[in-house]
Specification:
2 strands; mainly alpha; about 170 residues
Amino acid sequence: MDSRALLTDLARRPLQEVDLIWDSIDAADLNTHPAGHPNSIAWLLWHTGRENDVQVAHASGREQVWTQDWADRMGLPFDPDDLGLGHTDEQARAVVVDDKQVLRNYLSAVTDESADYIGTLTEADLAEVIDESWEPPVTRGVRLISVYADALQHIGQAAYVVGTTG
């Protein structure tokens, strides 16, 4: 198996994990703030999609999926560049999703964009240093791995919440 096949598999894992809990999430659970925490399942899933979307768009030079039409579909009260980093409690609580299928479809579109982008990469592209602000400098391949590892952590958080409410 080559690097692109492995990365494509990894890029698809967060959505696969969402699908394992999807039927257990009802509308009330989606927007619930367990133990008063500002991050709901909706926020966790939205933020997961946004982080993947922003970082893949940055690496690829492509337009974010979010700004193509998903920002309008979701109707959240944020600047289109917002991805949830540094949200105040009030901002995190403003992520309210009325139609969970729109959220799932956004995550799917982001996953498809990621897989498509990975399919265009060569081994040399994956080895290219794209961020020298870290020690050691970060290659494109390592950045992609970190994006999907972070996504899996957020999906795991959502799965935990689903298990506590379901």
